[in-house]
Amino acid sequence: MSAPETYYVTTPIYYVNDSPHIGHAYTTLACDVLARFMRLDGRRVRFLTGTDEHGQKVEKAAGEAGLDPQTFTDRVSRRFRELLEVMDFSADDFIRTTEPRHVRAVQALWRKLVERDQIYLGKYAGWYSVRDESYYAESDLVEGRAPTGAPVEWVEEPSYFFRLSAWQEPLLEFYERHPDFVLPQSRYNEVVSFVRGGLTDLSVSRTTFRWGIPVPDDPDHVIYVWLDALTNYISALGYPDTGSELYRRFWPADLHVIGKDILRFHAVYWPAFLLAAGIEPPRRVFAHGWWTNEGQKISKSLGNVIDPRVLVETYGRDQTRYFLLREVPFGQDGDFRHEAMVRRINHDLANDYGNLAQRVLSMIARNCDGRVPEPGPLAAEDRALLDHAHALLPALREAIGVQALHRALELIWELIGAANRYVDAQAPWALRKSDPGRMRTVLWTLAETIRHVAVLTRPFVPAASDRLLDQLAVPETDRVFAALGAGGRPLLPGTALPHPRGVFPRWQQE
Ligand code: ME8
């Protein structure tokens, strides 16, 4: 047998100056669904997340909390790690930029860049925003502020520079050869036009604060936080040990998922650093949109930050996961609204999906002695529904391949809709007396369809899907995509089923 295909997916590493909120949960959720999907599809997956702990912003936040930076970052980083459990995230590794493995990797990358004459010592004079951890040209400023609205300060200091300007042409060629390097397409266009506009060398060290990784052989300087942070994607694979098993297997990454705010760093600087160091760039960067809260920008100062923990306590974990990925096409901005959440919970989950399963399983419990019924010959309608179920996986692979997570859910719900129409049309309850053999065929067809749905919803709503698969007595080893489709492992007639219980409660106003 050939080795399984691999899949390496990463989240941004989150700043520890803030506690985790809906935006962080959203990015990691998308990666979690992709990672789970690929694992179920038989791929060997590496799913990385972590925290970005250096820089002036974190140094400042620690000072405000009256703590030294290491104690402060230990504390906040833990909250991001806890988020994994809160949201049922299946990350394989959690990297912190204060870990020795990361510091070693960043310094090695720096040395490699120096060795290849990609870094030189110069003088930096210009505008810097601590909030954005970013430098701005005079021409970037809008009414004396960064284009993001962040305040900027004039900075003059000796600095090392990365020869970014030399990478304009190679980057443009790279984008041309990889037209899906950045998705959505509109973001790709933004990146290309930014690079076409010209690149200037990038200041990659600072002397005005200490909380960072020292420049090798010149410890007055610390390494620019973005060069430090981006390197996490390879330090977690063991870089500079490029012969390590992890590195060989998983680099280049299949996908970096990020918010649109940090596109330039991932789609311009990062591939430039890598090309300059002779390392292959990642295969894709997907930039998703931003969430607002009931129409308002989410910000600490407005006091409207949404804590994922509260969402999970209020609405349920699978419900929150479903809502975030279904409500908004992945890549576009979204607005969090309580009403929309309740509608999704009650319509999509409780009515469409939950009721379908509950109705079918209760009929089987009552009329088939609580066992998987034995089907007779299949009618055209039965075949049509099963064909639809069998065709779903290839359609999902296509949607997931371009990170169209909302589309994947739509496709699954199209099958759920077809199954609901089929129950109504076949009316198995009416067949109980008139044609019990036909009733058994209909119920078997439905149970098989629900099995497909439950396996395919596992990446999105893992706990509820598994409760449903428990009720269908599907063994753990069969809860994978290889068990689906025409050549799969259908439900075995006669298998005893546990007593059915609803898996998606309705949301009730207290
Ligand atoms: O930028 N809606 O970290 P960060 C959707 N450390 N997503 C949101 C969001 C919102 N309202 N707010 C934040 C950093 N995000 C760097 C990254 S990577 C090498 C270094 C998400 O803590 C979104 O994914 O500011 C965004 O890119 C990320 O949080 C920013 O996290």
Can you walk through the features of this model?
It contains 18 helices and 17 strands. The chain has 510 residues and is an alpha/beta fold. The chain has a domain at 338-483: Isoleucyl-tRNA Synthetase, Domain 1, CATH 1.10.730. Strands 1, 2, 3, 4, 8, 13 and 14 form a seven-stranded parallel β-sheet that branches. Strand 11 and strand 12 form a beta hairpin. The protein is elongated. The model has no long low-confidence stretch (mean pLDDT 96). Ligand ME8 binds at residues 12-15, 23-24, 26-27, 52, 229-230, 232, 258-259, 261-262, 290-291, 298.
**Cofactors, ions, other ligands:** ligand ME8
CATH class of the domain at 338-483: Mainly Alpha
Number of DSSP E strands? 17
Detail the poorly predicted runs: none
Q: Determine the oligomeric state from the structure.
A: single chain
What is the global morphology? elongated
CATH superfamily of the domain at 338-483: Isoleucyl-tRNA Synthetase, Domain 1
Q: Give the CA-CA distance, first to last residue.
A: 56 Å
Average pLDDT score: 96
CATH topology of the domain at 338-483: Isoleucyl-tRNA Synthetase, Domain 1
CATH architecture of the domain at 338-483: Orthogonal Bundle
